[in-house]
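Give me the fold.
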Amino acid sequence: MNLALFADLPEEYENEWQYAYSWPNKALKVHRVHSQGKENRLRKEKYAVRVIDNIVTILCNAKDAQAEITQDVTEVSIWDDMFVASMARKLACLIAVPILKNNSQKVNEVEQLYTMQLQNMRSQSASEEEEAQLEIPDSWLLARGGWHD
């Protein structure tokens, strides 16, 4: 996600930071900040989050910064199937425990289904991250001009 640049960096931060960006809308957490471009996606920039004039601000040295964030997704139509299945299994666990309190075997079965679903999601997430990393060449290839899209 592209970050919105503030016009001026507050003077008190000029010695350490070059740019100030506003916190992305609906962002719950910022995981990584980097400069734009494929080659910069894996390079983590140092950043700080501060409240300046009652505005949550990201301070960093990345020009044209982008951020990888966790965002609150309220539109259920864009939830993927794995997320929906995990949500359903988690809700089943929450409902089943009070209802089936005398049948610990059934409670364990429901909880195992949820645990297996989480493992599937983690595996899927790990494979997606691995694919994304393979798209970006090592810096030595870029430096030598040996990479072409």
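The chain has a mean pLDDT of 79.
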